[in-house]
Amino acid sequence: MSRKLPVRSLGEIALAELAGSIVGAIGSMLQTTYNFGVEPDFTFLIVEIKSYMETMGATSAIYEDLLRVILCSDSLEAVIRFCCLQTLLNEAVHTLMTEIFPFTYYERILQVIAAQGRGLRQLNMKGVWVKEEFMCFMYEIIKHLPHLTKLTIPHIANDNLLKHISDYCKNLRHLDISGETDITDIGLEYLSYGESRHNLTILDIGSLGEENVCHTDIAMLLMNLDNLVSLVSYSFVGRSLQYILDNKDPAFRCKLVYLHDTGTKAKTMDAIIDTCPNLQDLYIDSPESNTLVKLSKVNLRRLKLYKFNCSELLTLLESNGNYTRHLTVIKGRGTMEIHRLIRCCPNLIDLDFYMMDSLSFSGDHGFLDLQGLEILSSPISQPGLRNLLSLSTTLKRLAIDSVTFNDEDFSSLMIEKDFYHLEDVWFTTAPNLSMASVEILMDRCPELQSLGQLSGWSLTPDDVTLLRGILKSCNASLYLRPFRIFLRPSRRAFPLAV
């Protein structure tokens, strides 16, 4: 049986109680003012709550946890969440995510952050899309938050905002200005030569797959941001590096650890290899034929490919696959021979196949420590799939969109092999698997935490209701998922931990 639900810690219970008390007090006052038909005035209540928190010795972590729990609650009215932001944000708070608010609250939220958020190190404003009429408040925020190390403001940046960032954010290491924005070469020049350029290591700019920022402007950033290790969303970095070598500095070298390039030509691949000695993570979209082989001397930890030739990839990995830990392949042409891949990359931890022409497996050896396997829209024979799974007992995560096993096939596999590490199983369509297969998963996989998509299995709604009742009565932590939304594989970028 799956693990039991853990007992809530005293800290979690206390946090929930405190958050409930604050929200309850604000909600009670709000209801009272509604009953009397007057506008709510929270001034006195805010003072009382702040005084109580200070008297009880609330720490920075408590304020941050309260804001996190309250601001992300969809069930709370915007006025209550805003009042909590106004009450709890102070110089002790180092991390703030605004979450989503109605447009009518934008101005007040920006004013509160500028006035009370001086201690912030990390600010995420994904839920507040600042319009031009409120941009003056964003400028004030940048001026009044000198300690910022991470700023997330997608879709709203303009040249003037970049000037303020470059002038005032001397400690900034991670900046997210991705998406469709009003940035021009003027704003990027501010960023390239301003005070923030010395510490900036991660810059998320542009939109995946779209060249809405000119590669020559990206080249300017690469030449001036000395410690830059990733441009995250920008998908034409190779073109920028080639431009630098051809037109600016033939001896240029950078510190990029991750890059994404599209339509990579042989000369562009040479530029990537020459200028990026620290490269570990690479995403190549639609490379020209016979281009991948140039990576034979680059020891990549992560590799992601889109629209490529399978035989070229296998030839490449035969020379350097021992170093690869994460491999994602999408729309590979030809047959991907997984048994060859195992010989080339025995140390893979994660392996994802999306929309491949064909997969085959006929070996008798598996990966040494494979923890994640996804096979989506990629045909593979049932014997080949069964053989592969039987040799992958280290798996923690398994996702396959179409499974033709019946209960007997699946039960024999689970009984013959010990899948003691499995935490997440996802079969989109498994019309021949019934309650018996669910039960054997629950019985044979002690770490199982999540199971889906059950609507594609041979289960009735009554079966799922019964299973949930059994899990609840046993206090099991297994979650039965009715559905799951996959990200478009061709647009999934690597997570980058720096």
TrEMBL record:
Alphabetical list of SMART domains matching this protein: LRR_CC
Gene3D superfamilies xrefs: Ribonuclease Inhibitor
Name of this protein: Secreted protein
